[in-house]
Give the backbone structure.
Amino acid sequence: MELINLARLKERLSGILMLLIIFIALFIIMSIVMPAQFLSLGNFQSMAFQLPELGILALAMMITMVSGGINLSIIAGANLSGIVMALIMTSFITESTPFAASFSITLFAILLGLLVALIIGILNGFLIAYVNVSPILTTLGTMTLVQGISVGVTKGYVISGFPQGFQSIGNNTLLGIPVPMLIFILIVFLMSIILNRSTFGISVYMLGSNKTATSFSGINVKKVTMKIYAISGLLTGLAAVIMISRFNSASAGYSTSYLLVTVLLAVLGGVNPDGGFGRISGIIMALLILQVISSGLNLMQVSSQLSKALWGIILILVIALRYYSDKFKLAQRTQ
């Protein structure tokens, strides 16, 4: 057993090391190709502001994939959550609203938006756990439903004009560090404790490895599944807070390309698409890699459509490489 654990630890460390080498190589290449633009303080600040919302959404995707599921409704849920916050703030806060009232309304808007995101997550969890609908069909259905509600409420328009205090969440810094990055660091810390230091976290990995064995071990699989998707939903709400405060607007169509990228981040970061394995440290490294690539492409003025195609190619390559790597390791063990 000890030898197996050491072998697994070695595999994990080698995976993180590989991602670190890729990150360093990409950073050096971008620094050589575009030293003035890429190495500028403005570019680093821009990356620090952009990374957190995608990182939180990636964590929302990761926890479901580790359990053997998936959540295709994370972007739709984040957008609806943001729309709810936006409608409350723009309806009840004006320039003449006193600070105390404005603060209270903003706080209420954030809490209600988070509640909406949580309800979407609970709905996903209920359908998967108790109605036995597959995760991909469940979250595809809720994605379509939530998108429809968002478009119906906004009629396709953008809602903008939030209080300055709310905008500061996504645009201000604290001791030189962007506020969104501080929020992301806190969420990473809490998620690390949940997944690595709690019985619930152990249950998540067990569920992804073998659902039947997990059930026979005395774990309430249905309750664990509900909690997984509730957490995933809540994370999308937190991402929405950062997203709409940074843009000073909310819409039903924001960040649709992020859905593909969150899956890419999870797989690139070492999450097993079949469930049972994945670490937050891998997600962080994958985030840094994709942020460097994204910033480089933006500085080179590459079209967003070409960027999406590149993400798809990378995702296919990563899955293919992982498949053949696992096949090679299995062949070595059977020799």
Notes: The chain has a mean pLDDT of 88. The chain has 14 helices and four strands.
